[in-house]
Inverse folding.
């Protein structure tokens, strides 16, 4: 169910173009601005998808030495083992880490009325939507969708820094639950998740279809999610 109001052109009303009213017990958001914001944020999964593709499939061993030496040994499959000089590209994940932390920040602050004003993309989207008719929709399904997005971002952060995450988990639990010297996540998992995230955001920005919202509605119908907002549970 959508609620329409006339456009608001006054710059002083820009913050109110993201939420219908700060007095609403159940927050309602401007779907027009939300779609614009999704289009802006689409740049992040695109960047991460190409980065992860390069990391997973683009790093190859390059033989640099002119001598290939027979070790006079074989593996368990009967293959002869040789000794060579080779190099392989390494990656500095600092830029990707900053981008992911910013994306996580955007996901979290957008979930709540008191923190939404901290998001630069919300201000940009609200400004771009100032002359368009707002379509008001409840916040709860969007919050659920952004929670899914935040979880995917967190997995990517763990993929880039597995040893730091493992050290933190082991310190908190006082047990060696995760290895600190090797990558314990499947190499292709973050790439699949980024492409899924890219697809979700494309559907939101271009087609106005929120997959996370539909999952929220389905969970509400089967009783797993309970919400007093009727519109949150019946998105049509």
């Amino acid at each position: 169910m959508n609620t329409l109001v006339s456009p608001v052109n006054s710059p002083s009303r820009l913050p109110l173009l993201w939420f219908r009213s700060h007095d609403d017990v159940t927050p309602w958001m401007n779907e027009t601005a939300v779609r614009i914001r999704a289009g802006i944020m689409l740049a992040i999964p695109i960047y991460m998808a190409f980065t992860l593709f390069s990391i997973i499939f683009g790093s190859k061993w390059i033989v640099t030495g002119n001598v290939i030496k027979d070790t006079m040994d074989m593996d368990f499959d009967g293959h002869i083992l040789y000794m060579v000089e080779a190099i392989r590209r390494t990656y500095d994940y600092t830029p990707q880490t900053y981008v992911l932390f910013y994306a996580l920040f955007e996901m979290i602050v957008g979930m709540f009325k008191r923190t939404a004003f901290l998001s630069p993309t919300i201000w940009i989207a609200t400004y771009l939507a100032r002359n368009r008719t707002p379509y008001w929709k409840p916040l709860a399904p969007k919050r659920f969708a952004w929670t899914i997005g935040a979880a995917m971002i967190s997995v990517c952060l763990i993929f880039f820094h597995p040893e730091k995450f493992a050290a933190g988990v082991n310190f908190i639990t006082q047990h060696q639950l995760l290895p600190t010297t090797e990558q314990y996540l499947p190499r292709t998992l973050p790439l699949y998740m980024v492409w899924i995230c890219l697809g979700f955001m494309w559907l939101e920005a271009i087609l106005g279809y929120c997959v996370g919202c539909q999952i929220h509605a389905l969970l509400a119908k089967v009783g797993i999610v309970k919400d007093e907002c009727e519109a949150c549970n019946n998105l049509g």
